[in-house]
Amino acid sequence: MKKAYHICLSSGNEVCCRDEEDYVYYFNALALAVAKTESSLLADAIMSNHVHECLRTACPKEVVTMQRYTYTRYFNSKYLRRGSLFLRPPFIIELEGLYHKLAALSYTLRNPVHHGVTSTPFEYSHSSARALFRDALGRDDCQDYLPEYLYHRYLPDHRSCPSGYAMGKNGLILREKVLDVSDVEHMFMTPRAFLYYMNRLSGEEWQREQEKDMLSGAPVTLDVIEKGIGYQSMSQMLAFEHGRADYRAMDDLILCEKIDNEILPAMGWESVYMLLPQEKARLAEMLCRDLGLPRAQVARCLAMNY
User: Fold this and answer.
1) Rounded Cα–Cα distance for residues 295 and 288 (Å)
2) What superfamily in CATH does domain 3-241 come from?
3) For residue range 223-263, what is the model confidence (pLDDT) as tens digits?
4) Does residue 33 contact residue 41 with C-beta atoms inside 8 Å?
């Protein structure tokens, strides 16, 4: 029997997506796992060191195992890395009622806001926020599709693309083709209600609303959704939710691309995973000093223990 779940996969103090290609490959791995297990994707947000997903499935652990294995093989091969990429076990919550699901969906789609990456959920290109209520919110449906004969280039082991899926020019399986749009839109009911949930501040109102579901477990809150991520503190995330973030600051993606495409080639290295601990320490000091970046962010992008 299929049930709804919120799933979070974390790579801990290590970035799991270092460039745009990684974000594309991760979502494609998720899309293939969803199709293979005959599950339904309700929402997703792929961040630099963790991933949030809301699924309707009969086998949540199997979905996790498939995408984790596929993506780790790709990541380790690309960056000359060894070992497991994601922390075990994954964080899984069963979603019991309508308001429980709405809270999980909303927190998943608002994740970039809570981490200070964007000021609204719709600015972030690595989540499914833009795939919902597209007509009402003025989203242009005109897509530049990739020819089908090129799909295999962007799929693990050159697999075939599931029926009904389509790819954009960058090789990404289009989220609106994977997402169960009608199910999610039915839960939010109207575009106006959807926008309300996307802009609603965290607080006790979320918990009181979920009490209508007569939950057997705890309600979904920001601290529950972000349990074990260790990305930012709760106070930081709440401040970001109120718009108190410097959106001009260098994010993990830009920093990783600078490290991988500029700094490492100049040093004669192919990957951060080839650096010795003392070399990482010297590079971290330089980045913190010259770019004024937080030490935790630099450590994350250099795959250091911090």
Assistant:
1) 6
2) Transposase IS200-like (3.30.70.1290)
3) 888 876 767 888 999 999 998 988 888 999 999 999 999 99
4) no
